[in-house]
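Human: You know discrete backbone vocabularies at least as well as I do. Show me how you would write down a chain together with its backbone fold. No explanation is needed for now; the record alone will do.

Assistant:
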Amino acid sequence: MQEGVRLRTGRRLAPFLLVLLLAGGCSRIPKIIVLEDPLTAPEHVELGVAYERKGELDLARREYDRALLKDRGFYRARVNLGNVFLAKKEYGKAREEYLMALGLRPGDAEATNNLSWAAIFSGEGIDDALARMESVVSGPGGRRAALLDTLGVLRMRANRPVAAEEAFALATELCGQAGAAPGAGVSGDATCPEEVRREIGEHHAELRRRFPSLSPAPAK
């Protein structure tokens, strides 16, 4: 190729274009290879969970995003992505993901519970979260200690101490019944691990500090 190639306007060809032309005249242009993602949406979620357990939240988020690229209506990816945002204290983004999850599964207990914690941590949307949580707890399968604990915290934040006391008392009762000996004739929440018991106690103590004049809940 001769030096001094010019455009039709009479201007000298820009240096980077000239380099491209020279390269094109001396070698073949390599083909662009697009690699297809071999993983399914559930497989991306499984990988994301593994990253999340190791505390690698950005990598977990990447996998949940990839799962949603495969399936925009994948409930588990939505909730897990919301959990990542919640852990990163990006509460507005967490709320958006939980609301989209609830759009897929209206009234879902897990998404409602996690949406409630986004409201509790941010201080925004407490009334909406409380209304949703009241509906979940009063519905089928809602009588669970962890859900009642969340309800108690929401009621406390909404300045409803008596109602909060009732929720914490019932959560404590269910956990106590869960630890009863087999055949004792009680029916409690079988999903009440030590972590849940501890959190209920901490939240109940917080309620007492906030409202010291609160009377004890009536015995059932």
